[in-house]
Amino acid sequence: HHALTLDGVTREYRPGVLALHPIHLTVPRGRFLAVMGPSGCGKSTLLQCAAGLDRPTAGTVRIGGTQLSSLNEAALTRLRRERIGFVFQAHHLVPSLSVAENVALPLMLGGESPGDRHLRALAAVGLGDRGGAMPPELSGGQCQRVAVARALVTTPDIVFADEPTGALDPAAAEEVLTLLRQAVDHDGHTVVMVTHDPFAAAWADEALFLTRGKLVGRQERPEAADIRR
Ligand code: ADP
Ligand code: ADP
Prior knowledge:
Bound molecules: adenosine-5'-diphosphate
Strand content: 25-35%
Keywords: ATP-binding, Nucleotide-binding, Transport
Number of helices: 7
Number of strands: 10
Strand order of the largest sheet: 6-7-8-3-9-10
Protein name: ABC transporter ATP-binding protein
Structural class: alpha/beta
Pfam families: ABC_tran (PF00005)
GO molecular function, one term: ATP binding
InterPro entries: AAA+_ATPase, ABC_transporter-like_ATP-bd, ABC_transporter-like_CS, ABC_transpr_LolD-like, MacB-like_ATP-bd
């Protein structure tokens, strides 16, 4: 099974107004895909439908072979927790839990004993020595690295990253992109990243371009200089 398959996915918020035209998209395992496009083109809508946070008006979404429309809300919530990793523009760490506890949280919520998995995930993002710290003690870039560890700790079928570098300075952004790249190259993870930043997209294997809800182009091995905003 592919990590993600979208087959004719559309989303209509108001009758007759399509935020997404039929989208056909396959993301094989072990791929780092960037989705680019101007504000309002439907990037968030695409991500939300693909990640089971929103139900498409038509079409099917499959994550690792599981068709999302076949799941009730409880099963969908469970699939999101166990088989999808999320990284958002803001890190959304729980400020009252330690860094290590934040990373362990997806496992605990799934009823799993974390063992040392959360500690290994933290070490993999270069923060093995900060597990006892509280999130407010960390920089924004460090918090986003913790968020990456939290997204990877369940070894999900796919990681969705929505403008993961949007709130970071260039150096911190590069660190986060390096981690996503490593997750794909070293651990076989699959990443779909929404970004408007050509420098961020240049770290992906492939960039897709969305305009007014339609996929209008794709570029293998994108280079920042070739990507027009
Ligand atoms: P992007 O993430 O690329 O900025 P969005 O997916 O947020 O684009 O929006 C795509 C289109 O759908 C826009 O025209 C937006 O106004 C519209 N839209 C998004 N969310 C809603 C909503 N909840 N209700 C109505 N229209 C929406
Ligand atoms: P420049 O044209 O100045 O080399 P780039 O857009 O190529 O700028 O890259 C900006 C930064 O991001 C550089 O530090 C570069 O090493 C890094 N970078 C860009 N794309 C990739 C990539 N696909 N893999 C690794 N590093 C990348």
